[in-house]
Amino acid sequence: MAEFSLIAWLKDNASDAPHVSLGIGDDGCCLHFKHDTIWSMDTMVAGVHFLPNADPQALGHKALAVSVSDCVAMGSIPQSVLLSLTIPSYDDSWLKAYFSGFFAYANKYAISLVGGDLSQGPCSMTTTVQGELVSSQPWCRSAAKAGDDIWVTGHIGLAASAVAGLDHVRAKSALHYPEPPVELVKLLSGFIHAAIDISDGFAQDLGHILRASCVGARIKIDCLPWDDNVTYPQKEKRHWQLFGGDDYQICFTAPQSYHDQIVEQSRRVGQKVACVGRCQSEMGLVYMDDEGDQIQMQGHAWEHFT
Ligand code: ADP
Ligand code: MG
Q1: For the chain, does the N or the C end have fewer beta carbons within 10 angstroms?
Q2: Quick check: 42 and 70 in contact, CB under 8 A?
Q3: Does position 306 have pLDDT exceeding 70, yes or no?
Q4: Which of 24, 99, 124 should be mutated for ligand 1, with most atoms under 8 A from CB?
């Protein structure tokens, strides 16, 4: 494949959808929306977000999943994606593997590839995902209320354990093939106050909600969900869960009165959710152990430019 035959191949493989009036092939795409739409962009750079020799199939999946995660955290269902891909050289087998990962994930959720860009240079990829808002308001970081339950989806800390070298297939899968909970968006749309996706570590990402909402929180640290198939050292586990990141799951707050409905709706689609704490009017983030004793946890989440 050379550049223009790759573009023709992408055009043939991109799925059509009613909102796509014009997809790949012109200078821009033309989309038509009936409802409010969310837009979000994410970049992954070789040497920063992944190793230069990373598996291209996993990169294709992850490049899309990290933007889908933002869409989900805003309360929207992903519909379209633009992909800007920069690669050091034109490599047929690398591209084939990359797009097999990309399209497998896109097709799972009927996300249409509607355009993008190809360049030569140090490997990096940027996805811009558009999602359809399912409730009347986007889920914002600033909407948590004192008394809200704090929830997380999926498992937390597994991806970080793989980065730290824990050699388990489920930990590696969490790192390389993140699965943000797309199915939950519609089911939970009436219940959620505030939400954020967990990309930089639970503590830091929850902290964004707390600051934006002017509330504090108590977290039952051992309620943070972990995959019991993966054996772990206890001290490291807590650290990975609070400060690790790369989870691409959602942290959200909701009134206590919705507790049972949230559990029931999540069970319908087989999606794991866990209530891990509560918002309070007193500022600050407090961790409790199983006995209800307060514990100190120190760590640093990921931050660029530091
Ligand atoms: P231009 O030179 O006008 O920017 P390109 O040759 O880059 O146009 O792109 C031609 C068409 O191919 C456009 O519709 C563009 O959106 C699409 N395209 C280019 N790269 C990608 C990509 N990585 N993924 C999806 N579509 C792409
Ligand atoms: Mg052009």
Answers
A1: C
A2: yes
A3: no
A4: 24
